[in-house]
Write a structure and sequence with these properties.
The structure is a single chain. Helix content is 0%, strand content 20%. With 136 residues, the chain is an all-beta fold.
């Protein structure tokens, strides 16, 4: 995410930035080292990911019960709200790094004929075979 208004330097997609139009794809050839799933190769600042948080009208879940996710499709619109990537700034929230992103699964024919982990439907040969983490 480019620009001073965004809170993160590296993230996975434009929608994960506070200002999506300022998202810039990382390119090692740019000379700045770029970003990877772990962080900025130049500064070492972690890559942050979005998360799903309980909606404020949801009394059944603790408001601190967040799930780190790859994209909006992982959130349950009935009970959760999607939040763009941000670094941790509260005692209970340290931000979502790659190690925190929950994975779904691809179901069906594969190497072993069963399941394999995927962070989004893009990780499946057949996107319709994807099962979000919240449904596992």
């Amino acid at each position: 995410c480019a620009g001073s208004g965004d809170r993160v330097e590296c993230t996975n997609a434009a929608d994960s930035c506070l200002y999506a139009f300022r998202f810039e794809r990382s390119a090692e050839s740019a000379g700045d080292g770029g970003c990877d799933v772990h962080g900025s190769r130049a500064s070492g600042i972690p890559t942050y990911f979005p998360y799903c948080a309980p909606r404020t009208d949801n009394d059944e879940r603790d408001w601190r019960d967040v799930r780190c996710v790859w994209d909006k499709a992982e959130c349950d619109g009935e009970t959760e709200r999607w939040e763009e990537a941000r670094p941790g700034n509260l005692s209970w929230f340290r931000g979502c790094t790659c190690e925190d992103v929950l994975t779904g699964a691809c179901v069906g024919p594969g190497i072993d004929g069963g399941f394999h982990c995927a962070a989004s439907r893009d990780g499946c040969a057949d996107p319709s075979a994807y099962v979000p983490q919240r449904l596992l």
